[in-house]
Design goal:
Layout: H1 3-11, H2 24-29, E1 41-44, H3 51-57, E2 62-66, H4 69-78, E3 84-88, E4 91-96, E5 99-103, H5 111-115, E6 119-122, H6 131-141, E7 150-157, H7 172-179, E8 183-192, H8 198-201, E9 209-217
Parallel strand pairs: 1-2, 1-6, 2-5, 6-7
Antiparallel strand pairs: 3-4, 4-5, 7-9, 8-9
Length: about 220
């Protein structure tokens, strides 16, 4: 993961991955996890996602982590929130109400902070990482979450030979390998959305699957 790559994307406004609405798959599947409303939820590589507002609206304390300062600043500005800030070895913390975003490297989060999260919502992190980083990411982040955590992970599948990521294609076999035996992994949704993602069709893809996974961490 090259920090400069993502910072340049934000500087150039190349943020097509950002949705101007709450992710429908989150709304559909998050309630099925049965997570307590008071459970803290980790949102890795959160950008300025409106999903954090939705999760906080359910009562969850939300911990976002984002590498790019511009994304964090835009989030609080656009939501008309005035965060308090403080620094830690993990980065610069912005806190407003139930939402805290750490502007820093996800690999800098310590085990205690990760263990404070009983929920995780991963829409943009796993698919943003190249193959050689995904195992390290899964071990560091998911391996340190609270025992019995529950999460929703969104991935995509397509012919990687026809298009370079991100988002990277992550086959089902790799998803299961990444998260077991630390969690029970269940595919809950799969849909070919190439008809809606014309930019990918223009790059030569004939299929682009959106895949949703439920994770139930072992106690």
């Amino acid at each position: 993961m090259n920090p400069e790559f993502w910072q340049q994307r934000w500087r150039d406004g190349e943020t097509g991955f950002h949705l101007d609405r709450v992710t429908p798959l989150l709304v559909k599947y998050w309630p099925t996890l049965g997570l307590e409303s008071t459970a803290r939820v980790l949102v890795p590589l959160c950008g300025k996602s409106l999903d954090m507002i939705w999760l906080a609206g359910l009562g969850h304390p939300v911990l976002g982590v984002e590498l790019v300062p511009a994304a964090v600043e835009q989030f609080f500005s656009e939501q008309q929130l005035e965060p308090a800030t403080h620094e830690s070895p993990a980065g610069l913390h912005y806190v407003a109400g139930a939402i805290e975003i750490i502007c820093g490297d996800i690999f800098s989060l310590d085990a205690a902070t990760l263990a404070s999260c009983a929920g995780v919502y991963d829409r943009g992190a796993l698919v943003a990482l190249p193959a050689d980083m995904r195992q390290r990411y899964a071990q560091h982040v998911y391996g340190n979450l609270a025992a019995g955590y529950r999460g929703l992970v969104l991935t995509v599948e397509y012919d990687q030979s026809r298009m370079a990521g991100p988002p990277f294609s992550i086959p089902a076999s790799e998803v299961r390998e990444l998260f077991t035996p630390g969690a029970r992994v269940t595919e809950v949704d799969r849909l070919d959305i190439i008809g809606k993602e014309t930019k990918f069709a223009e790059r030569g893809l004939s299929r682009f699957d959106s895949v949703s996974w439920r994770l139930d961490g072992t106690a």
